[in-house]
Here is the input.
Amino acid sequence: MKCKTRCRHNQLSLLPNTLIMIQKVFATIVLFSSLFSACTSQPKTKQNTEITKDTVAPAAKENFAKGEVIDQVVCRGDASQSFALYLPTTYTSEKTYPIIFAFDAHGTGKLPLVKYKELAEQYGYIMVGSNNSKNGNSWEESQRIAELLFADVETRLSVNTKRIYVLGFSGGARVANGLTILNGAIAGAICNSAAAPAANSKTPRNNYTWLGIGGTEDFNLIEMLKYDRVDLAGHNVKHALITFDGKHEWCPKETMDEAFWWLELCEMRNNLASKNDAEIKKRLEPIQKQVETLLQKKEMYDAFLLCKKTVNFYDGLADLSFYLSTYKTLKTDITVDKSMKLEEVSWSKEEKLKQFYSSGFQSTDFERWKKEIASLNQKIKSESKKSEVQMYKRVLGYLSLASYMQASGALKQNAITAADYLCKVYVLVDPTNSEAHYLNASVAARQGKSKEAIASLNDAIKNGYDDLPRLQTDSSFVSIKTMKEFEEIVGKINKK
Here is the structure.
């Protein structure tokens, strides 16, 4: 397969000048290939600093608004750092509360808080979102940001230090997982859309909980499945993985509710929270009916996976005899074994497709990209198997991220010829992505193509672009800022 892939790309070519430029850019943007398996790098770690009351001087707890998201709270220890904050309406400094530290891949601390504040309110959790931790930071910088954040929050809020959790999306999930395996004070991690930790450690701790959340069309889903089923196997880590119908994105509130409930169950199991038998019974009843329905439909593998997940969630907290016996029976079922093997084949096929397309950034011309992307989209429309459709969508998602990394990297190096080509590939791969159109506009503006730049900016707005400060401070658009059409674009964003 590798030989065929290499030969196929050796037959493809670019226009000479463009190829030379892209190869130069490609050589200096090698980090993009690791992004797909890691999203952030995995540098060496430094000595762990745990969150304990002994690490900071005692201080009076502060009063913050309750029941609303505060976008920015400046850290006392470093004014360049800040965090978003949500306190449940029941919050009082007379009690301590469980806390979730959230790490968004783009450093938008308020995003997960706004999205999940109702859950924080329902379950009684403090939520804090870092405004500084983001993709592109080194592990040392990520760790420094987190340590300062932890210390600052603990001195200012009433935190239950036995119930500290971290939550992250994409590269933020890698930071969250890295912090957890090194920091004994963190009780568990919720990793949305990525799994492998940003930190490397020869002796990671293994007495914590881990919950993965992945979209069925997320290009990192296979990584998450492998991490849950292989990497954590045999470790003293309570773990599970839940999926939702979606792409590489923060999961819906309904899915995150399962994650909050997972934390509650873990706390009940560890006697950190009162056992809620009524709620456990209420949540288990529909699951049993779901398993029975799957068995009736002969969907044995789905029933097998649901039983496994249920046991992981409710172990030690309820009568699980039905799920355990069903799981043991299905474990030896020939159709389940066949499904497992087919799934592994599918994983391998997906990885090979990703490798094939990623190598195309060095050698494939734009017309070839048109044919390849058209072929992928046709397979998505015509394929009858849902799992195959989801796989092709994950490959497209992977290509979208690859295109972004390549195009943005070329722009940073001012390699305009290469950036022009790569931005057009990005738009081709992901035509509804506002960032693709924005970068395309940046290239056009630098080339003096004002009409094309304005058109691309309008396309960006149509697809959801709304970052006005970025647009107004972007040096790429200096040459068109005085145009009436540019002012109209600013007006459109203001109206949003």
